[in-house]
Amino acid sequence: MPGYETRKLDVRVGAREYRLRALSDHMQYADPDGEARRAGICSASWSLFGQLWPASRALAQAVKHIDIANRRIIELGCGLALPSLLLKSRGADVTASDHHPLSERFLDYNAVLNSLPPIPYRDLPWTKKIRKPRQYDLIVGSDVLYERNHPGMLALLIEQLAAPVAKVMITCPGRGYRNRFSRLMEEMGFELTATPMAFSEDEPAPYRGRLLSYRRGL
């Protein structure tokens, strides 16, 4: 027994249905070897990676038709990595990244569950110095601006990851830190287009959430 319980979710994005193994609820916790603790993940946030969040669904919708030709793509803070699974099903050169010790295990399982080839994975804390910078043409993430220090950390990471000509797409459910992040991205030469976006099928307008699209050199 792994020490935690899981469930299967059926998720439709456009015409295709995906099946995901997720944690059964927010109360799950298992860190017998202290790996999560060493990674800075406390018991209260341990289960967050294993839930399917509305922002992840929204990001999957947003990348459903995006141009993937000749683009190296990375998903930041992927969790269950629904956007990465969708991109892989389209034949994209996509890498999923997170810092939770179980993220890669769930990613591998869910790729097989959806009859997809393995998806490359990077254990990527946002404070890490990138050895081979400027590799990615498209960087995506969902609800990654939920703590005060995230705008600065994420901007510095993107500065290392993004190619000179690049696009960054983030689905934000209305966090207050997005304005600071956008200012930092502007300082790096990115132009922002913010599009109101529903994060659930029954959400009425006006929408609080946004698809934040940053472009540089495009």
Automatic annotation (TrEMBL):
GO terms for molecular function: methyltransferase activity. GO terms for biological process: methylation. Keywords: Methyltransferase, Transferase. It holds the Pfam family Methyltransf_16. It comes from the Bacteria. This is Methyltransferase type 12. It comes from Halopseudomonas pertucinogena.
